[in-house]
TrEMBL record:
It is found in: Cell inner membrane. This is Polyamine export protein. The chain crosses the membrane at residues 6-29, 59-82, 102-122. Belongs to the UPF0053 family. PaeA subfamily.
Length: 443
C-alpha cells in the first residue's frame, strides 16, 4: 500500500472516530428541556434523541464498538505506513537497530497525536459546546449504525445488562428534576449573568416556603392592632387614624379570644358615608382563619386558597394568639429585597463585617445574610432573639454576647425583656475557644 493510500485510510479512520466521539458526547450533554422544546416546535429528530436518552444502551454500545475498532485499525495501519519513513530518517544518524526502535516510537506518537487531536479533543469540544445541534445531526446516522451492527450490539448489550444486574446497578438514567436541580440551574444562570441576583433569590425563596415556619413572616402579638367587640365608635376611629392597617382582628375581652376580623375598607366606607361603626354588627365582622404556629408558609398559602382569605390569626398549642399573617407577608418573604421600604428592614448591613439585626428577625434570614448553614441547637428557636436565649439559658441583658465561629452576637437594646437590636460582627480570626465559649454560655 502506498503512502498516499495509507494516509487517506488514516484520515478516514480519524473521521470515523471523530463521528463516534461527537455522537457520544452530544447525546450525554444534551439537555432534555431543550430537546423537548425542539420536539414541541416540530423537529422530529429531537424525539429520536430523546428516545436514545431514555434507552441509551445500544447507542453507546455502537459508539464503543466503533471507537475501539477504529483505534485498533488506526494503530495497525499507521504503524505499517509511517514506520519505514521514520526508520529511514533516523538511519541517517543512528545504527539500524536504534533507528528501527525510534522509527516505531515516532510512528506511534504521530498516529496517536493525530487521533487525540482530530478524533477526540476537537469533536468532544464541539459536542460539548453545541450538544443539541450536534445530536440532531448524528442521530439518524447512528440509528443506521445500530441497525447494521444489531447482532453484535445485542450480544454486548445483554452482557453489559447482566453485569449491571449482578452489581445491583440500573442502566436507566434518572431524569427526575428536583428542587435542588432547579436551584443549581438558577445559581449557574446568576453567575453567568443570564439571571439577575434578586430574581434568583426570589426563586430560591419560593422553594423555601416548605421549610420556613409561618412565625418567620408573622406580625408579632405585641404589634397587633386589634379591636374589642364593644369598642365605641370614637375609639375605633382613633385607632384607625393612629394605627392604619388593612385588617384588624376583633376580640371578645382580650386578644386571645378572637371572634373575627374587620377589613379597613369596610370601616373607611362607613366613615366616608358618616355612618356609625359598631363591631357588634355581624355584617361588618368577618369570619377569621385560625392556623397553628407549626405550619409552614406553603401550608398557610394552601389554607388561604382553600378558604379564599388573605388574613389569618396564628395560635400556639395553648390557644394563645402569637401573631397574625397576611398573604402580603408571605409574598414579601418570597420577593425579598424587591419589595418593602427600607425603614422596615430587620437586617441592616453597617459595613463589610457587621450587621444591625432586629431580635425578631427569622433565623433563616440571619443565616442567609451571614452565609451560614446553621447555628448551634437550631431546632430550639426560630428567631435571633430565641437563638440568644437558648445559648445564654436566660433572658439576655444589654451588652450580653455570644461568639460562634467567626461571628459575635452582641445585644445592644432590650425593651421589657424583648431583644430589640443585636449587633453581629464578623471576626477576622476565630479563636479556637469560640465554639467552647458559645457552649459555656448555653450551659
Amino acid at each position: 500500500m502506498s503512502l498516499t493510500h495509507s494516509l487517506l485510510l488514516i484520515a478516514l479512520l480519524i473521521a470515523a472516530s471523530a463521528f463516534f466521539s461527537v455522537a457520544e458526547i452530544s447525546l450525554a450533554a444534551s439537555r432534555r428541556l431543550r430537546l423537548r422544546q425542539m420536539a414541541d416546535e416540530g423537529d422530529t429528530r429531537a424525539d429520536r434523541v430523546l428516545l436514545m436518552q431514555d434507552q441509551p444502551g445500544e447507542y453507546f454500545t455502537v459508539v464503543q464498538i466503533g471507537l475501539n475498532a477504529v483505534a485498533i485499525l488506526g494503530g495497525i495501519i499507521g504503524e505499517g505506513a509511517l514506520s519505514p519513513y521514520f526508520n529511514a530518517l533516523f538511519a541517517l544518524w543512528l545504527p539500524e537497530k536504534s533507528a528501527q526502535t525510534l522509527g516505531f516510537v515516532g510512528s506511534f506518537l504521530a498516529v496517536t497525536s493525530l487521533f487525540i487531536l482530530f478524533a477526540d479533543l476537537l469533536p468532544k469540544r464541539l459536542g460539548m459546546a453545541h450538544p443539541e445541534v450536534v445530536a440532531l445531526r448524528v442521530v439518524r446516522p447512528m440509528q443506521g449504525c445500530m441497525a447494521l451492527f444489531k447482532p453484535i450490539v445485542w450480544l454486548y448489550s445483554r452482557c453489559a445488562d447482566a453485569l449491571l444486574r449482578l452489581m445491583g446497578l440500573s442502566s436507566q438514567r434518572d431524569e427526575r428534576i428536583t428542587p435542588e436541580d432547579i436551584l443549581a440551574m438558577t445559581e449557574a444562570g446568576a453567575r453567568a449573568g443570564v439571571l439577575a441576583l434578586p430574581e434568583q433569590q426570589v426563586i430560591a425563596n419560593v422553594f423555601e416556603l416548605d421549610t420556613r415556619s409561618v412565625t418567620s413572616a408573622m406580625t408579632l402579638r405585641e404589634r397587633i392592632a386589634f379591636f374589642l367587640r364593644d369598642d365605641p365608635d370614637e375609639l375605633i376611629r382613633a385607632r384607625i387614624a393612629a394605627e392604619p392597617f388593612s385588617t384588624y382582628p376583633v376580640c371578645d375581652g382580650d386578644i386571645d379570644h378572637v371572634v373575627g376580623y374587620v377589613d379597613a375598607k369596610d370601616l373607611f366606607q362607613r366613615v366616608l358615608n358618616n355612618q356609625p361603626i359598631s363591631l357588634a354588627d355581624d355584617q361588618l365582622v368577618r369570619k377569621v382563619l385560625i392556623v397553628p404556629d407549626r405550619l409552614s408558609l406553603a401550608e398557610v398559602l394552601a389554607h388561604f386558597r382553600q378558604v379564599h382569605e388573605d388574613f389569618a390569626v396564628i395560635v400556639n398549642e395553648y390557644s394563645r394568639v402569637v401573631g397574625v399573617v397576611t398573604l402580603n407577608d408571605v409574598m414579601s418573604t418570597v420577593m425579598g429585597d424587591l419589595v418593602g421600604p427600607a425603614d422596615e428592614e430587620q437586617i441592616v448591613r453597617r459595613d463589610e463585617n457587621s450587621w444591625l439585626i432586629d431580635g425578631t428577625a427569622p433565623i433563616e434570614d440571619v443565616l442567609h445574610v451571614l452565609g451560614l448553614d446553621e447555628l448551634p441547637h437550631s431546632e430550639d428557636y426560630e428567631t435571633l432573639a430565641g437563638f440568644l436565649m437558648v445559648m445564654l439559658r436566660r433572658v439576655p441583658r444589654r451588652t450580653d454576647s455570644v461568639t460562634v465561629g467567626h461571628y459575635k452576637f452582641e445585644v445592644l437594646d432590650v425593651d421589657s425583656y424583648r431583644i430589640d437590636q443585636v449587633m453581629v460582627s464578623r471576626l477576622l480570626t476565630a479563636p479556637a475557644e469560640n465554639g467552647a465559649q458559645a457552649e459555656a454560655a448555653r450551659s
